[in-house]
Specification:
By secondary structure, the chain is of the alpha+beta class. The chain contains 17 helices and 19 strands.
Length: 478
């Protein structure tokens, strides 16, 4: 879908902002005691939705309810494919009136499967995907159902970009609200660091703007605190000049994995902001591999010079090349829906203990596992730990552990592999990245937010005191 004009975007924002369709919180509290909706109630609700209500039995219900993580096979009572913020408000009111669980779906990538729910209402934002770019002001405004690949395509028409994930079909809203890692983060910070403002619908039906000057407490919370405080319907980003980049992969046979990881750590220690690298350990039947995803957004010749130490390690394959940023960000880390279990932790150093734990795990030889090693340095670490809700602000490494399976019989083995490696690394850990947690518990969430958790719980109490939006990495109201 092509970018819309500013006039069109503003007109839609005005229409949705003036449609306040939910009753007061006290009414909703009383309404929560009403029995589940019957067919007549669903018909009345559907007649007021501008978008579309997809119920069990609809031809596309089964395909629509699927999420990226195929480990979850959930069957909601209704999927509300919203056309705008007014539909979101109506869906929130309906679900609360009938005491139904609420799942919010943008790109459907939530690792713990929270993009769908059993027997509840899915607020599906995928049709809300319009994008406007103001190249002069270097600002992009996008509806919350837009995907990374679409926002990149719109901004790259003007040789501009904002930090987004390298997986093209990730939704921008979930990515940004949870922090937002990407290949531009060492140069320009996390996605949430570039969020200028957002429009949200709160659980009591209010349409609110969060920015430095409007609801600043909410603005602080949504930059890392996830979807705990309202349903985001539009986001506004700061853009940066990005055109051609030097990027690709270096693949090594990993018989001597400890030496490769030590070399990777030395490379990271001196890497400038313009250079981002991610290490990937891939056990495989044909032999373990170590892959380095390379991304450099500065002077191209200088980028080649910087890669000297990595190329001196004699990679088996070198695909690093000059290409358009949008092309690289859509292809360097492709991902297809698959059943998987994933968890995450952050370590301040890739020391001998961490390297030994990773090496031991990969020696066990499971073919469908991987370890992502994401270095944190540069701009993302120059923001204060309490300046936003996103608390991963020190130098170190985010370790993203995943086990996948094709047959259900292999699930237990894959999950066990991840948990064993996690437990070996846990004594080194200082936090986690909430967007990559495929498991949830209060201790995990508290660890992820660290010193910011208490303030987040107070803001949650203000905007969602009954914890209506709880299908997420949940922050409980104080």
């Amino acid at each position: 879908m092509p970018p819309i004009t500013r006039r069109q975007f503003a007109r839609q924002a005005a229409l949705t902002a003036t449609t306040l369709c939910a009753p007061p919180v006290s009414v909703l509290a009383d309404a929560a005691r009403v029995s589940p909706p019957d067919a007549a109630a669903i018909r009345r609700f559907s007649s007021g939705i501008t978008g579309r209500v997809i119920a069990p039995g609809a031809p596309d219900f089964d395909s629509t309810r699927l999420v990226f993580n195929r480990a979850f096979d959930r069957r909601p009572a209704l999927i509300v494919r919203c056309a705008g913020a007014a539909d979101v408000a109506r869906a929130l009111e309906f679900a609360q009136r009938h005491d139904l669980a609420i799942a919010v779906r943008g790109g459907g990538h939530n690792r713990a499967g929270f993009s769908a729910c059993d027997g509840g209402v899915v607020i599906d934002l995928s049709a809300m995907n319009r994008i406007e770019v103001d190249a002069g002001k270097r600002v992009a405004r996008a509806e919350a159902g837009a995907l990374t690949v679409s926002l990149d395509a719109a901004t790259q028409r003007f040789a501009l970009a904002t930090p987004l994930a390298g997986c093209p079909n990730v939704g921008i809203a979930g990515l940004t609200l949870g922090g937002g890692e990407g290949f531009l983060m060492s140069k320009y910070g996390a996605a949430c660091d570039n969020l200028r403002a957002a429009q949200l619908v709160t659980v009591d039906g209010r349409h609110v703007r969060a920015s430095e000057s409007s609801n600043p407490d909410l603005y602080w919370a949504i930059r890392g605190g996830g979807g705990n405080f309202g349903v985001a319907t539009a986001l506004e980003y700061r853009l940066h000049p990005v055109a051609e980049v030097l990027a690709g992969t270096l693949t090594y046979a990993a018989e001597k994995l400890p030496e490769l990881l030590q070399a990777f750590d030395r490379f990271v220690a001196t890497a400038p902001d313009e250079m981002t690298v991610v290490g990937v350990v891939l056990p495989a039947r044909e032999g373990r591999r170590f892959v380095v995803l390379v991304f450099h957004c500065g002077d191209l010749q200088r980028g080649h010079e910087l890669l000297g130490p990595l190329r001196a390690l004699n990679p088996q394959e070198d695909t690093v090349r000059v290409a358009a940023y949008a092309q690289i960000n859509a292809s360097i880390n492709p991902a297809a829906p698959v059943a998987h279990f994933q968890t995450d932790l952050f370590v301040p150093a890739l020391d001998d203990t961490a390297i030994a734990a990773i090496t031991t795990a990969t020696d066990e030889g499971l073919p469908n596992t991987r370890v992502f090693i994401v270095p944190f340095y540069g701009a993302i670490t120059r923001v204060g730990v309490t300046d936003t809700a996103f608390a991963l602000r020190r130098r170190g490494y985010e370790l993203d552990l995943m086990g996948r399976w094709d047959a259900v019989a292999d699930r237990e083995t894959a999950v066990r592999w991840v948990k064993v490696l996690r437990d070996r690394l846990q004594p080194l850990a200082h936090g986690a990245y909430v967007n990559q947690l495929g498991e949830t518990s209060e201790p995990l969430v508290r660890a992820a937010y660290g010193p910011n958790y208490a303030r987040l719980a107070q803001i949650k109490k203000r905007y969602d005191p009954n914890n209506v939006l709880r299908l997420n990495q949940n922050i409980k109201p104080a």
